[in-house]
């Protein structure tokens, strides 16, 4: 009897003790609040593809700080495809390529962190990445712990070699795995918009790609021989201008890494940057910082435009109207202000003569309104950084082909 009592007491204590000790009650789903404004940074893919190494990372981090990019808000350095060895180790762990990263990934990450910056890596939901390196399928929890231990801050998670799996589930699994690994890591879905991530992505990730890959041109479609296309920046904007209501703080429509400073003209780079700001897209530079021209740096660090992108309302802009081939894009900003971008989509110079009174703006998705017959707004030209009258008078300007004029209207 005594023995039975002791056994019962002991097991009771065990059960009680177990129940009390079980405080690991982490909610599943993404780490919330890591991207309340669109993430800003640099990614290796657009310029370097898989030709990446530790020297490139360190030099890029150095320039991010010394050039003023970091002060302008760019803080993530993300290594895209190609950072791994071709095989996992005998325990199934990923191996950073020892030739590209002879000091080890940890020391590279520590270096980036020592500069006050954050660090990101890339992998893929499929069996292999797009460039043929080990994918994460079946290794989600193991890889998440690997990333947490390395100390990364951002994971871009791609969608190649995924036959037979469902996007929503695959991204959910990785999102939960990251959460359970216990380190806040921004989760960047790179599913190309094939399975409408904007409809299910908010609890899963902090940003999601909405299109196939960008191409450094204004409005072209680049057809790859393997039967897929990359897109000029205006093609992406046009393709996804109607899903704006799905984007917002901590759940951004990602219009892809930028091609500013890559193969377009300075005018086109300016338009590209202005549109990424208007669309509240993540601002991830994709150029070679070591060869960056002053005009590229000036575009990427334009404080006025960045403020439009980082506005705390976090609303993606929309195409409001078009006059003689000049598109007018608008974006509600906090404190009743608006950003307005005139974009010359044509191949010839145009004259703008925009009558505000005939063009009161209504944002039916988010419920904002600018009634130019009732209210007068002060106008600031954000590229020229100077006042440009008020909405009492027509706005007049010359605009060359492919160029933009971006204004801020202040009530
Ligand atoms: C896909 C992605 C790109 C890049 C490459 C890497 O194409 O969309 O952004 O990550 O894979 O292989």
UniProtKB/TrEMBL annotation:
Keyword Hydrolase in annotation: yes
EC number(s) recorded for this UniProt protein: 3.2.1.22
Domain Alpha galactosidase C-terminal span(s) in chain numbering: 324-409
Keyword presence, Transferase: no
GO biological process annotation, one example: carbohydrate catabolic process
InterPro entries per the UniProt record, alphabetical: Aldolase_TIM, GH, Glyco_hydro_27, Glyco_hydro_27/36_CS, Glyco_hydro_b, Melibiase_C
GO molecular function, a single term: alpha-galactosidase activity
PROSITE patterns cross-referenced by the UniProt entry: ALPHA_GALACTOSIDASE
Matches recorded under CDD domains: GH27
Keywords, comma-separated and alphabetical: Disulfide bond, Glycosidase, Hydrolase, Signal
Superkingdom assignment: Bacteria
Substrates-to-products reaction catalysed: Hydrolysis of terminal, non-reducing alpha-D-galactose residues in alpha-D-galactosides, including galactose oligosaccharides, galactomannans and galactolipids
Signal peptide: 1-19
Family: Belongs to the glycosyl hydrolase 27 family.
Protein name: Alpha-galactosidase
Upper taxonomic lineage: Bacteria, Pseudomonadati, Bacteroidota, Flavobacteriia, Flavobacteriales
């Amino acid at each position: 009897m005594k023995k039975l009592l002791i056994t019962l007491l002991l097991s009771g204590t065990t059960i009680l003790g177990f129940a009390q000790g079980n405080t690991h009650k982490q909610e599943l789903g993404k780490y919330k609040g890591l991207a309340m404004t669109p993430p800003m940074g640099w990614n290796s893919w657009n310029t370097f593809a898989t030709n990446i190494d530790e020297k490139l990372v360190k030099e890029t981090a150095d320039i991010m700080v010394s050039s003023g990019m970091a002060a302008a808000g760019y803080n993530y350095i993300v290594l895209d495809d190609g950072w791994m060895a071709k095989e996992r180790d005998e325990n199934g762990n990923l191996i950073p390529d020892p030739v590209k990263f002879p000091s080890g990934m940890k020391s590279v990450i520590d270096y980036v962190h020592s500069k006050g910056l954050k660090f990101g890596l890339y992998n893929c939901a499929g069996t292999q990445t797009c460039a043929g390196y080990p994918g994460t399928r079946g290794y989600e929890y193991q890889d998440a712990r690997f990333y947490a231990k390395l100390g990364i801050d951002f994971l871009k998670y791609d969608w190649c070699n995924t036959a037979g799996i469902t996007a929503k589930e695959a991204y959910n699994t990785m999102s939960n795995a990251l959460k359970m690994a216990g380190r806040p890591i921004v989760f960047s879905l790179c599913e190309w918009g094939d399975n409408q991530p904007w409809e299910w992505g908010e609890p899963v990730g902090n940003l999601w790609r909405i299109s196939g890959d960008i191409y450094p041109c204004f409005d072209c479609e680049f057809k790859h021989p393997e039967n897929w296309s990359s897109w000029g920046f205006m093609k992406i904007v046009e393709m996804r201008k109607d899903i704006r209501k799905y984007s917002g703080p901590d759940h951004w429509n990602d219009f892809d890494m930028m091609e500013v400073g890559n193969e377009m003209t300075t005018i086109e780079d300016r338009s590209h940057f202005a549109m990424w700001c208007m669309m509240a897209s993540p601002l991830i530079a994709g150029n070679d910082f070591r060869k960056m021209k002053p005009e590229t740096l000036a575009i990427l660090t334009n404080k006025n435009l960045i403020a439009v992108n980082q506005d705390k309302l976090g609303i993606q802009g929309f195409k409001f109207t078009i006059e003689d081939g000049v598109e007018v894009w608008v974006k509600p900003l906090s404190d009743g202000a608006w950003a307005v971008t005139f974009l010359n989509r044509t191949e010839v110079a145009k004259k703008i003569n925009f009558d505000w009174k005939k063009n009161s703006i209504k944002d039916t998705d988010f419920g904002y309104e600018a009634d130019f017959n009732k209210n007068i707004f002060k106008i600031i030209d954000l590229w020229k950084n100077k006042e440009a009258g008020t909405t009492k008078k027509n706005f007049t300007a010359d605009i060359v082909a492919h160029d933009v004029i971006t204004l801020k209207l202040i009530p």
